[in-house]
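Field log, afternoon session.

UNIT: design team B
ACTIVITY: writing a sequence onto a fixed backbone
BACKBONE:
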């Protein structure tokens, strides 16, 4: 299923705009785009919500007919246990995380111990934990970690854009993680020359206009055959003023949805 994530509304949520979008507003906008899945990912207000506010947000998602996934950073067992509680409140079947989180940079051996401690509760609840590919951990190390644990409820959230900062090729990342992928972050990316031709900027691009060979991802991972969700995100730079930035962000979201649906 194609879904939207918090990063598709990055600037609309931001305090750089006069009237930041609420979580309810993002859910409503998601449904208005005929999308039925939303990933609340790295969304700081969620961690500050009371139980009553969480229940209210979960009820809003159900009212709009939007399924929920969650996303966070870090894998300390207590932190993952809290996100399992949130997942159960939202009826979410997937939590995306990263090995490193605020104040936590475990070694691979420590990460394995933390995950082994946290996963039995996820398995018992039928919730999947998806660890994202990113530049701080080599893709081969992440794959080895997931394989060594060998749980059906531990998968990889594939985001090949992230690994470029580690001088890995996105195509290689896709191929190494394909068999273990349980979630996809769908965004495009490109390099652009800096003014004066001194270096490059690596940033987002409108879907289908950058360097991401998404057709290769679909052929290799086969997310639609395997029931793996594709969550739209953006790396949209600030466009100079709030109005232009929000207008562009919304246009990129629509283009991403149209592009992904055209590849069905």
């Amino acid at each position: 299923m194609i879904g939207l994530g918090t990063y598709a509304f990055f600037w609309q949520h931001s305090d750089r705009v006069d009237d930041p979008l609420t979580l309810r507003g993002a859910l409503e906008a998601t449904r208005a785009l005929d999308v039925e899945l939303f990933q609340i990912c790295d969304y700081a207000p969620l961690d500050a919500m009371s139980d009553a506010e969480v229940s209210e947000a979960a009820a809003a998602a159900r009212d709009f007919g939007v399924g929920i996934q969650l996303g966070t950073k870090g894998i300390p067992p207590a932190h993952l246990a809290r996100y399992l509680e949130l997942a159960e409140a939202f009826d979410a079947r997937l939590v995306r995380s990263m090995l490193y989180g605020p104040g936590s940079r475990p070694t691979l051996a420590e990460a394995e111990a933390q995950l082994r401690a946290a996963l039995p509760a996820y398995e018992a609840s039928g919730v999947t934990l998806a660890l994202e590919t990113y530049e701080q951990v080599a893709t081969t190390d992440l794959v080895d970690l997931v394989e060594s644990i060998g749980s059906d409820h531990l998968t990889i959230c594939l985001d090949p854009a992230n690994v470029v900062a580690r001088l890995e090729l996105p195509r290689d990342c896709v191929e190494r993680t394909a068999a273990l992928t349980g979630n996809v972050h769908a965004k495009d990316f490109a390099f652009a020359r800096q003014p004066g031709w001194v270096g490059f900027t690596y940033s987002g691009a409108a879907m289908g206009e950058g360097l991401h060979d998404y057709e290769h991802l679909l052929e290799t991972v086969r997310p639609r055959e395997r029931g793996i969700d594709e969550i739209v995100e953006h790396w949209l730079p600030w466009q100079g003023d709030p109005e232009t930035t929000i207008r562009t962000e919304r246009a990129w979201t629509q283009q991403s949805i149209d592009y992904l649906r055209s590849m069905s």
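LOG NOTE: The two ends are 11 Å apart (CA to CA).
NEXT ACTIVITY: expression trials, pending approval
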